[in-house]
Design brief:
316 residues; FAD/NAD(P)-binding domain; seven-stranded mixed sheet; five-stranded parallel sheet; elongated
Length: 316
Amino acid sequence: MSEVKKREHVACFIVGSGPAGYTAAIYASRANLHPVLYQGLEPGGQLMQTTDVENYPGYSDGILGPQMMEDFKKQAERMGADIRYGMITKVDFSQKPHRLWIDGEKEITADAVILSTGASAKWLGIPSEKRLNGSGVSACAVCDGFFYRNKNVAVVGGGDTACEEALYLSKICSHVHMLVRRDVMRASKVMQDRVLQSDKITVYWNSETDEVLGEQVVEGMRIKNNKTGELIEIPIEGFFVAIGHKPNSGVFAEFIDTDEQGYVVTSSDSTATNIEGVFAAGDLQDKHYRQAVTAAGTGCMAALEAERYLSAEGYV
């Protein structure tokens, strides 16, 4: 590849796809910013691992997660976004224009950058969990809990997120079996109290998942007591893993401020980061809601703020 082809300059560069990235691309295109979007390691983000999506406005009959992301992508392309395959492997935000490298080779400079690389759910790492992902195994109760109304489900985890998921599911499911690895929870005292006071939640202390049971869909789980070694099989239809998320911010961490968990820190009521001209949207900077609709909302915000920044600086 020639040196010319290895280097390129763009006004607006979007890192990552999913609802935030694609929405940013739609708005940036409509503002004539001619955005270039690189999809990253997982084009479409976490929704590519989701089956039915029924809580996103506009899809009255629901839609499969991958199809929804394909719709987002097509709309962004129709608006004029340049969507490409590739992964950002290095950045340099120490000076303007900002510099980014794709797949360790091509260098792109950009006047404004929108980061939307999302966060990846942490999993237990057992084969049956992976095999049944989307067929009863989920990492989002708010997203998928509706499908298990009046059914027995399980939640794995002992932090605030796990407690929130268990309490949410207890309002719509027949019963919630909650697995806590130790003899105490990491969750705040108030969240623990709410869980322990619910007659629809059973907590299994010192317990880990030995296996998720079922061939095509989740039919049960086998759990192991860490102290006694006892194995118990429990019939369930939904298995929710709530052991946390890891924001995909590592490649930017040298320049972009993050919190103790790695989430990108943005200004209040804004998507602006500590680096002028760099904005962050979606689950990369949102550890509270983590919904497709909120990710899309911040993608819109980031594009509007990027447009204002570029205009004020005289770039466009």
